[in-house]
Amino acid sequence: MDALALFATVSLIAASLYWFICIHGSAEQKGKRAVELSGGSIAKEKVEDNYKQYWSFFRRPKEIETTENVPAFVDTFYNLVTDIYEWGWGQSFHFSPSIPGKSDRECTRIHEQRAVDLLGVKPGARILDAGCGVGGPMRAIAAHSGANIVGITINEYQVNRARLHNKKAGLDSLCEVVCGNFLEMPFDDNSFDGVYSIEATCHAPKLEDVYREIYRVLKPGSMYVSYEWVTTELFNSDDPEHVAIIHGIERGDALPGLRKHSDIYEVAKKVGFEVVDEKDLAKPPSNPWWTRLQMGKIAYWRNHIVVTVLSWLGIAPKGTVDVHKMLVETADYLAKGGDKGIFSPMHMILCRKPEKH
């Protein structure tokens, strides 16, 4: 190779690395760049220790279901993964049905808009986003409906990210973000015209507790819609492969334990809701939601190389490589769960709070 060719090759490699590390942002505009990866509210030098603490939780499976530390456990998880999610996935931390001719981003927005359309609210209504993350759905829903959205997330770092995004999008007048636990919300009884939760209540130790709290803050006659993570009727608890897949999803997504699809209706009825509709939005005629994960394998490993380089250079916190590797492996479990039909991230239930209760 002559000097000119060598120079061109080195220049191309350097330019590519610069683009991926310094410029390449998330799947959505104005998202995170690789050089901004952090541990959320966790100090840089403590990220690795917190990651180890996160995994130690799963060595005590019975404690996951009963301990009062679950909210803190979920908070730690989102400190570790929020920046990586934004960088590699976007500002909406959820899945959506694949629609022919539509981009992933368009499918995401359609899925979010469907939630607020089901609530039947008018512009100016006060709507709660229970488990809002960094606010991707709330911004799409506010822009689509004209409603005033109040989001709640347990993670303070996500609150700050959401407020920043709301301001950049020019939607901070419609979008409010509160740091709090959706099991004990700082809102008055009967104070919301509608409530939605998108793949968020799966983090609650007991679904009944969060549904009861949502019931409390919802005005009589108003609607609640949730997209739930569940095991489907095809899941066989006696099949070791099925069990391994579901446990992989639980460990990699901070879940106290996935619920059965049949549990959702029973819990909603138990707390007092009228169930208006219930369906798995992942089933046909919807196209597979998990193909996005399968097609993204090359991108995942490319990003993993970037994270490894940044960690080696001391730009990304020590432990970021382990966190990213966990998410890559979890994506594989999610795709397998979807492909086998034993897991769905979008079991939809639409409920109404009775006029008299």
UniProtKB/TrEMBL annotation:
GO terms for biological process: alkaloid metabolic process; methylation; sterol biosynthetic process. It is an enzyme of class 2 (transferase). Pathway: Steroid biosynthesis; sterol biosynthesis. This is Methyltransferase. Its EC number is 2.1.1.-. SUPFAM superfamilies: S-adenosyl-L-methionine-dependent methyltransferases. PANTHER family: METHYLTRANSFERASE (PTHR44742:SF6), PTHR44742. It comes from the Eukaryota. The lineage of its organism: Eukaryota, Viridiplantae, Streptophyta, Embryophyta, Tracheophyta. Catalyzes the methyl transfer from S-adenosyl-methionine to the methylene group of 24-methylene lophenol to form 24-ethylidene lophenol. The keyword Transferase applies. The gene is LOC101243835. It catalyses: 24-methylidenelophenol + S-adenosyl-L-methionine = (Z)-24-ethylidenelophenol + S-adenosyl-L-homocysteine + H(+). CDD domains: AdoMet_MTases (cd02440). Belongs to the class I-like SAM-binding methyltransferase superfamily. Erg6/SMT family. It comes from Solanum lycopersicum. Keywords: Lipid biosynthesis, Lipid metabolism, Methyltransferase, S-adenosyl-L-methionine, Steroid biosynthesis, Steroid metabolism, Sterol biosynthesis, Sterol metabolism, Transferase. InterPro entries: Methyltransf_11, MeTrfase_SMT, SAM-dependent_MTases_sf, Sterol_MeTrfase_C. One of its GO terms (molecular function) is 24-methylenesterol C-methyltransferase activity. Residues 77-354 form the SAM-dependent methyltransferase Erg6/SMT-type domain.
